[in-house]
């Protein structure tokens, strides 16, 4: 093949490059050695076509860069195919539906456990407006341990589950877990009710390993991400075995997405181990496809468990227990040390901070520590931008030099329910994306997919729809004035996301010199009514110019 000739030329009536100032319209993308070598008007494509070039004219189907999901728990989500029964609302509309579903799947128990996957804010989404009780789960079985996981922050156990977990009236919670402050709810006599908060990683739930884990991850990446056009995943680690499975899968050419791993400390490994990962992890895959990119830490818990650290008290003691404003789990010294250690290791620090008080304390600690040094990506604050009751808080973000990482999908997932937990205070500043973009924040969209996420959480077009439609689970339109444009929403999920990872020069837009991570859509999103965005299908996905997904023909 002669110099200047491309291996692949994609031609389309609409190329959406996601570059500044370049019009969308008929054009081409030329690829050689996995990299975009040229783009331009359709009539200029011939200059890059030679005898060995594969020319693929997709006609009226748009071509755009692959999507980037900067915050996902892919391994956790992948495991749910094998280890849980789907009890999510609206699939299950009531407690009775949940119990019936669990009964129908009792024979699927693994290692003596039957685990039900339920949504975040499950108590608000069921018609009963409550969680199943311990006694109700006992009516399903007292021999099989049952755990209904309502997202990753709150779980309901039956009596057998409590027994296997060692939780009885004399049980005393640990001072800290990896997602927040552990809490066992008790009745007036001191007996555990079955509801536990921020304790999922302390429970003896079944685990996948070996070939089963390998297959789960391959399927999870393919079905949850690649099929929806996601070509780069910011993966929050779950297990070392999972990381090694990802490495083997990439070596075998079986994964269709780049993985940027954030080692969960101390959930997966210690901070010391994370910063020294090259000494023991020994990944074989080239770093452009798989690399340890950062460290993820938790500063507080979740709203559904009333353990996000907020400035106003939770309004319902049943939710809040004895920690009515939540707890900040990381001290300023711990944050400062983590920032220093990760920077020395060339890693990006990402801190989970759901509540407004947690975000302020994290930013104050980062600012006091001097922020990230030159050459290291700025620290991320996960979930900053989801709930912003005080608009002035962004001044502290700017002082600290952090990157806010909100999740538009949560507008649908629990935008309704802030007031149920925080009263009128919870109506202020829900997902203020218009305001943040106008202030110059290059915010991103990500799935934060975990157990209990909505069924469409990993589809970027669902997230994009959330930014435009702003419709919640119960059908409420939240603060319509915060709607953004489709172009802005696409940028959140492509070039803005790549820049959040510090890799905007490598992917996120279709430009010469960047990886040829390209998707072909079945229709033009700019010609769709907003609600039709939910139906946009990804027909083809290319990772570094290699076709890794092709949708089956519609019959």
Automatic annotation (TrEMBL):
<keyword id="KW-0378">Hydrolase</keyword>
<dbReference type="InterPro" id="IPR013108">
    <property type="entry name" value="Amidohydro_3"/>
</dbReference>
<dbReference type="InterPro" id="IPR033932">
    <property type="entry name" value="YtcJ-like"/>
</dbReference>
<dbReference type="GO" id="GO:0016787">
    <property type="term" value="F:hydrolase activity"/>
</dbReference>
<dbReference type="InterPro" id="IPR011059">
    <property type="entry name" value="Metal-dep_hydrolase_composite"/>
</dbReference>
<dbReference type="Pfam" id="PF07969">
    <property type="entry name" value="Amidohydro_3"/>
</dbReference>
<dbReference type="InterPro" id="IPR032466">
    <property type="entry name" value="Metal_Hydrolase"/>
</dbReference>
<protein>
    <submittedName>
        <fullName>Amidohydrolase</fullName>
        <ecNumber>3.5.-.-</ecNumber>
    </submittedName>
</protein>
<feature type="domain" description="Amidohydrolase 3">
    <location>
        <begin position="55"/>
        <end position="549"/>
    </location>
</feature>
